[in-house]
Amino acid sequence: MRSVAARPPGRVERSGEGQRLKILLWHVHGSWTTAFVHGDHEYVVPVTADRGPDGVGRARTWDWPSSVREVAPDRLRDENVDLVVLQRPHEADLVMSWTGRQPGQDLAAVYCEHNTPGGDVPFTRHPLAGQSDIPVVHVTSFNSLFWDCGSAATTVIEHGIIDPGHLYTGEIARAAVCINDPVRRGRAVGTDLLAPLSGAVPIDVFGMRVDGLQGALGLDPGRLRTYDDVAQHEMHAALARRRVYVHTSRWTSLGLSLLEAMHLGMPVVALATTEAPMAVPDGAGVVSTRIDDLVHAVSMYVAEPERAHLAGTVARTHALSRYGLQRFLGDWDRLLGESVQAR
């Protein structure tokens, strides 16, 4: 596999500064896109009348800068964008249909792979494995390791977070969890683990389409409460009041909510799966594949507020160093500049 060299985590270098680009991308993953559009470029996001998956437009529950513009598909030919950031396989066809330009040929392009592979893991072939015109950018080293990208150029640009501040108080003796679509996604995001965990400490679940969770698990509000589609800044404030953050995903790319909780100064308890063991350092919480360990850890942090505060401080220090916004934007600036120059 031919690779593009990745720089060490934590290194800050804005090598693309001064080269302002017009970038086309879709609003697919809200937290990731929020960090990405805080760079020094102009960003064009497709918007359709129904604001469906291919035309969501600007974010409604995140704070985006004015450099992000909504453009209808039939007006994209007039935009003369410099580069497109693809995030889903079918987007290349949309670019060709909407702009008349072929990504990787007459339009510079990169493909950001947010997800862990599905299907026949670890033999899953990436949709862009059979080409060499568009580099694949993985958001974690775990993803890069598990996807078969064939001859495609690959690199890793780890997540970056807009620092919400050290807001942690832990005044509410409950655990916090962030999951989108927990009923539909089930075991992949650890929905089944919420029942045993809530037997140890009460849990508050934040995310999209979480309202049916209590009924699906047969739990009363004393053990589990849900907060549906809360605006990002409000969710950060609410998370920071809970005593401990729990990351339950079995098979998903590194959850940005985990990194946001660490930035807030929260102690974290996480399944030792995918990239989580690399993201949570010693002293910041407990990472394990044993359910008994997780249950014990959440009980311990809820019962010992001082210990929770100390772990949260370690978590925040590490998150600021490894997953800071400037490092993230610097890595992307470098790759975007190289891609435009090559094309």
What does this structure look like?
By secondary structure, the chain is an alpha/beta fold. It folds into 2 domains: 22-160 and 324-342, Glycogen Phosphorylase B (Rossmann fold); 172-322, Glycogen Phosphorylase B (Rossmann fold), CATH 3.40.50.2000. Helices cover 32% and strands 17% of the residues. It contains 12 helices and 13 strands. The strands form 2 sheets. It has a 7-stranded parallel β-sheet with strand order 3-2-1-4-5-6-7. A 6-stranded parallel β-sheet has the order 10-9-8-11-12-13, with helices on both faces. Helix 8 (256-264) crosses helix 11 (305-322) and helix 10 packs across helix 11. The longest helix has 18 residues, at 305-322. It is globular and about 60 Å long. Mean pLDDT is 93; it is low at 1-16.
Helix content: 25-40%
Number of strands: 13
Number of domains: 2
Note the beta-strand portion. 15-25%
**What is the general shape?**
globular
Span of the ends, CA to CA: 21 Å
CATH topology grouping of the largest domain = Rossmann fold
What is the averaged pLDDT score? 93
Q: What is the highest CATH level, the class of the largest domain?
A: Alpha Beta
Structural class: alpha/beta
- Using the 3D structure, state the CATH architecture of the largest domain: 3-Layer(aba) Sandwich
Strand count, sense and barrel status of the largest sheet are: 7 strands, parallel
**Secondary-structure element order, N to C:** EHEEEHEEHEEHHEHEHEHEHEHHH
Q: Low-confidence parts lasting 5 or more residues at pLDDT below 50?
A: 1-16
Q: Helical element count?
A: 12
- Radius of gyration, in angstroms, nearest whole number: 20 Å
Tell me the name of the CATH homologous superfamily of the largest domain: Glycogen Phosphorylase B
Give, in spatial order, the strands making up the sheet with the most strands: 3-2-1-4-5-6-7
